[in-house]
Give the backbone structure.
Amino acid sequence: MMSLRKPVMGTSVRLGAALILMALVLAPFQVLAQSGMEVVAEGLNNPRGLAFDHKGALYVAEAGAGGENCFPADPADPESQVCIGATGSVTRVWRGSQVRLATNLPSLAGPDGSFAIGPVDISFQGKGSGFIVIGLGADPALRDQLAATVDPLMASFGQLAVMTPQGKWRLTTDLAAFEARANPDGGAVDSNPYAVQAFPSKRLIVDAGGNDLLAVNNKNKIVALASFPDRMADAPPFLGLPPGTQIPMQSVPTTAVVGKDGNIYVGELTGFPFPVGGARIYRVPGNGGQPEVFAEGFTAIIDIAFGRDGSLYVLEMFKNGVLAGEFSGDLTGALIKIAPDGTRTEIASDGLVAPGGVAVGPDGALYVTNYSVFPGMGQVVRISGASASFAPDMNNHKPNMRGLPKGQFGIFDFATPQVNP
């Protein structure tokens, strides 16, 4: 029987090659003004989720750029270095000003600062404080071991934090410890909190590593609302398995929003083998329960958001698949609109490079984090038109990810299929 082992830490693609950075830097931006898309924030470090507060200020969770304390992500491979530091942050964009409001949050990344883990989402409830979710992508026991032996900052990953309007923050809830204790999906213990939605009496949390939807109440009690099961997927040819062989694939949920109907809508990235068109959006009852498929046929969903008219906007991190990024350096993303009648329209793709989050602004425009896996290159772009697209034109600047070393942290699970007797 075929099984797909869930690794100790979810493997993240590492983009350390100078070729990639050079290609992105040299890509032309001149068409921005004619495209209906404008840059409203730049110079961000691995920007991911974003949200508006009650005043209309925009906040961006930056996963940071790692740090100077480096260690092997894989003890068996000394060259698989990851680096930890307090470079995570939250940036506020308001009235023409861009300021890093919250700083010194934990960050873990490759030596070049790419594909960081750290603050990955933020949400506000009314006029209150902001809630920040900090990712992990590991067995919480390993996190605790590394905190004791490598760097105490490791203990801050896999947690929920609260931020005051002045940018002061503190940890409130150990989400990864809940996975270690309860393991709602029954699989290998692995936690990677990746999304948060704040409400007066609770916070909704998506754990991409645990394949769960959680709720945290005002007393920081955690309950599991739903788990998302493995499915079978066709094995990619490069595994050398007999044609037609299928292997288990994890859901890897990455985002959740509440609809006007009170249901919770959850988007998934999917795990290995990351099939193109294999990602789904699930609908879960507001108080929890069995997920049902709401929409499917997407690829590598990283975020979703409802518009004022009930349209659902779906952000694909890699529209041509995670493996296209792995083997050919295709980091093209896409933003897709699902109208209330079910009609789907791709409203942006060209120039979206590994986008990481989407939010609907008070002005009705869409705001998307771009270059979400790079340090110092991240952007927030505003999309004002229903068919907006823009370059940089990547046709002549294809990043090459082949042959690059792999780390062990993140949401991309490249676990090797094993044959069990």
About this structure: The longest helix spans residues 140-149. The chain has one domain: 2-404. The chain has a mean pLDDT of 86. The longest strand covers residues 77-94.
